[in-house]
Amino acid sequence: MSALLGALLLIMALAGCADDAARARQVKVTLANHVWSTAIQELIGEFEAETGLDVTVTTLGESQLSDQYNVKLNAGTDDIDVMMFRPLQEGRQFIHNKWLADVTDRTGDPAYQWDDFMESARDAVSDGERAYGAPLITEREILYYNADLLQRAGIDGPPETLDELVADAAQVKERVPDTFGFVSRGQRSPAVTQFSSYLFSCGGDFDDGTASTLDSPEAVKAYQVYTDLLRESGPPGTSNMNWPDAFAVFQQGRAAFLTDADSLFANVTDPEKSRVADQVGFARFPAGSAGSRPYNVTSWALGINDVSEHQENAWRFIQWATSPEITLRMQQAGTPSARTSVWDDPSATADLPPELVEVIKDSFNGSVGHDRPRVMKVPQARDIVGGPLVVGQQGGDIAAAAAKAAEEYDELLAKERR
Predict the structure, then answer these.
(1) What is the rounded distance in angstroms from the CA atom of residue 257 to the CA atom of residue 237?
(2) 70 has pLDDT over 80
(3) Which N-terminal stretch is annotated as signal sequence (predicted)?
(4) What is the pLDDT of residues 148-167, one digit of tens each?
(5) Which of 125, 202, 218, 329 is in Cβ range 3.0-4.6 Å of 288 for a Cys bridge?
């Protein structure tokens, strides 16, 4: 009997050791439903074969992903090792809540080539000198234009300044029947990211690090330029437009100019989606009094759950997924990378319009690494910043609306400092 009991105990011990060994090889990865996520999952088998680790992937839509993080990370879950997150939308909150592990020492490995990431991308996943993630995907605001409409309006080429954009948009609307000079996002919160490049190029920003600057002369000027374009040269109902609505107008050949993210270019160059695919041109964002200062942002990154029991495994996955080699393959699959070496590789841009590639590379210089307020409560901040955009489209007093927005923004900053 004692021999049988001993054998059972030995079997249980061996099973326990096997379970411990299996757990030690685990990497639990949570991703957003994104083209990058689809592409990387096709390569994970290579990572598993190379490392002997077992990767479990959970993919969620953006809203569901945010809900899961808020619930699980707040509860201190260890069900997540690697997490895909939006640095500008939730990065500060995650760092403040101590949900992201500090990876500064890991990024210092020379083989990882941390300096190969764009400076704005490194800044997006950092808090001061400390890094909390690895950049995945970047995008910039550019100017799209319809070459046919410009020719019909007697305009030689795309505008280089915001003043020229305003004048050219008005000229198209006046000279070409049934068309609009300009279209972009006008909806209160979604418009904020695209408005940011106008703000930066006019010499402004959302705040100076301690207080709101939304009521500065530079910010008021930017509000005026953007909303005048929408109201005077845009189609009716711009205050209800998000990016799909604005792109639809451009796709139909009814707008000469559109400012939005370069990552959305296929919506206007695909003949199955766009009537003007063969007429689309690309140009750098027009310059204001401070020059051309478009956003150049990191929209997604990978981080490590700070309470993960498998942080070494998690970093091995991140190091692999964001390595120069895999990043090149991801860009070839259609996701704009954050590594400069990849953009310098002709194979990474072979499927992009040459003019667009030139504009993107040119936009690396003089750009700004954020397109929304750098606060913890980003949705509330965007709603505040978007207030004057709505007022301006309605023909209201922008200076008064900006003063009100600045006051509300300062209140939000004060609450975050408590």
Answers:
(1) 17
(2) yes
(3) 1-18
(4) 999 999 999 999 999 999 99
(5) 202
Long-range contacts of 324-327 (CB under 8 A, 24+ apart): 324/113, 324/116, 326/40, 326/43
Looking up residue 157, the CATH number of its domain turns out to be 3.40.190.10
Q: Which residues of 123-161 are buried (b: 16+ CB within 10 A; e: fewer)?
A: bbbbeeeebbbbbbbbbbbbbbbbbbbbeebebeebbee
Which alpha helices (DSSP H) does 252-296 contain, by range? 266-269
pLDDT-based confidence at residue 417 (cuts at 50, 70, 90)? confident
- Asked if 234 and 289 sit in the same domain, the reply is yes
Residue 20 has pLDDT above 80, yes or no: no
**Residue 261 sits in the same domain as residue 320:** no
- Same domain, residue pair 156 and 286: yes
Q: Do 200 and 153 share a structural domain?
A: yes
The C-alpha atoms of residue 289 and residue 284 are separated, in whole angstroms, by 15
Closest CA to 244 of 231, 220, 260: 260
Count CB neighbours of 188 within 10 A.
Answer: 19
Residue 144 has pLDDT above 60, yes or no: yes
**Closest listed residue to residue 314, CA positions, set 30, 40, 22, 18:** 30
State the DSSP H helix or E strand holding residue 339, giving kind and residue range, or none if neither: none
What is the domain count for the chain?
A: 2
First-last CA distance in the chain: 67
Taking Cα atoms as reference points, which of 223, 276, 218 lies closest to residue 249?
276
Q: In this predicted model, what pLDDT tens digit does every residue of 311-354 receive, in sequence order? A: 999 999 999 999 999 999 999 988 899 999 999 999 999 989 99
For residue 288, what are the domain limits? 141-295+369-417
CB distance 376 to 97 below 8 Å = no
Half-sphere exposure of 38 (CA within 13 A, CB side): 7
pLDDT at 23 over 90: no
* pLDDT the model gives residue 21: 59
Q: Residue 16 domain-assigned?
A: no
Strand blocks (E) in 269-387 = 280-283, 296-304
Mean pLDDT taken over the chain: 94
User: Is the per-residue pLDDT at 8 higher than 80?
Assistant: no
pTM reported for the whole predicted model: 0.88
- Under a CB-based contact definition with an 8 Å cutoff, are residues 201 and 287 in contact? yes
Close Cβ partners of 177 (under 8 Å, ≥ 6 residues apart): none
